[in-house]
Write a structure and sequence with these properties.
- This protein is about 50% helix and about 20% strand.
- It is α+β, with helices and mostly antiparallel strands.
- The longest helix is centred in the middle third of the chain and has 74 residues, at about 170-240.
């Protein structure tokens, strides 16, 4: 009984292994290549699949999703003989599992080498400045070449991106210095423009202020002159309306005389000859008021003697070239007009 039991156990194990090999479950977005006696038979799609055990063999499983493969930096020489290191990233997708399995040994390695050679061809026809500023052109050129070459491998290249372009260290230092110089230049230009604009605005402000100040002074002078003219006109009209006589003028002269004598430095002062006329008129007025019968107790009051005005001082111009010009200012004598702009030396007649 023991040999029979052993045979049954062996048959059960073999049946279980055959069942496992017969049923193949393929996950979504994947595919499997089936070979029979080493020859391609079919491609298993996602889901439950049945194969012949011990005859059919599943060679490999292929992911049909889009893959991202970064490639290490590759040294590339530009047209101006500068070596730059370029990192690339490839986005690809397997469209034909059979071609990806049998048309190329390793499609990842093939894509990498093809990318390097194509990148060197494109960068070799461009200088460093064009390389740094033409990433879109380089990406489009790489994608076109890779998509055409990998089509027969069952691969579709969706995108090609340049991660980084690193020029030599010396070139980086030179570029930084150039950029710094350009920024300093722009800063200096902006500063000069700002100062120029500020000076222009300041000059315009000062000009407007001077114009407004001059206009204000002119208007003030006009108003002041108008006020003085109006005041003189009012006084003149008041004098004419009041019919002022010589008596009132003489009284105003007498009130003005003390003002002329004020001050410690006034050692000598000149009385115009008109004062004598005014005093005579004022004396005549007092004589009329104090005539016969007009005094106290009906007696005659003698008219007060009117003080004679002292003779005016002789004025001599200080200009030696003009010569001495004695001026007689007594009543009735011809009196020359005194120039207020000329300085005179005062001489005491005594």
């Amino acid at each position: 009984m023991e040999p029979v039991l052993i045979v049954l156990v062996v048959l059960v194990v073999v049946a279980f292994i055959a069942l496992i090999k017969t049923i193949q479950v393929i996950p979504q977005a994947s595919a499997a290549i089936v070979e029979r006696f080493g020859r391609y038979t079919r491609t298993l799609n996602a889901g439950l699949n049945i194969v012949v055990p011990f005859i059919d063999r599943v060679r490999n499983r292929i992911d049909l999703r889009e893959q991202v493969v970064p490639f290490p930096p590759q040294p590339v020489i530009t047209q101006d003989n500068l070596v730059v290191n370029i990192d690339t990233v490839i986005y690809y997708q397997v469209t034909d599992p059979r071609a990806a399995t049998y048309e190329v040994a390793s499609y990842i390695q093939a894509i990498e080498q093809l990318t390097v050679t194509t990148l060197r061809n494109i960068i070799g026809s461009m200088d460093l400045e064009s390389t740094l500023t033409s990433r879109e052109v380089i990406n489009a050129g790489l994608r076109g070449v890779l998509d055409e070459a990998t089509g027969k491998w069952g691969i579709r290249v969706n995108r090609v991106e340049l991660k980084a372009i690193e020029p030599p260290t010396s070139i980086q230092d030179s570029m930084e210095k150039q950029m710094r110089a350009d920024r300093d230049k722009r800063a200096a230009i902006l500063t000069a423009e700002g100062q120029r604009q500020a000076q222009i605005l300041k000059a315009e402000g000062e000009k407007q202020a001077d114009v407004l100040r001059a206009e204000g002074e002119a208007q003030a002078a006009v108003l002041r002159a108008d006020g003085e003219a109006a005041a003189i006109r009012t006084v003149f009209e008041a004098i004419h309306d009041g019919d002022a006589d010589q008596k009132l003028l003489a009284y105003q002269y007498l009130q003005t005389l003390p003002e002329l004598a004020k001050g410690d430095s006034n050692k000598l002062w000149i009385i115009p000859s008109e004062v004598g006329d005014a005093l005579k008129g004022l004396g005549g007025a007092f004589t009329g008021l104090t005539g016969n019968g007009g005094g106290v107790n009906g007696g005659a009051v003698a008219a007060p003697s009117v003080p004679q005005a002292p003779p005016a001082a002789t004025q001599v111009p200080l200009d030696p070239a003009a010569g001495p010009r004695p001026v007689d200012v007594e009543k009735g004598a011809a009196r020359p007009r005194v120039d207020p702009a000329r300085e005179y030396r005062k001489i005491d007649p005594e």
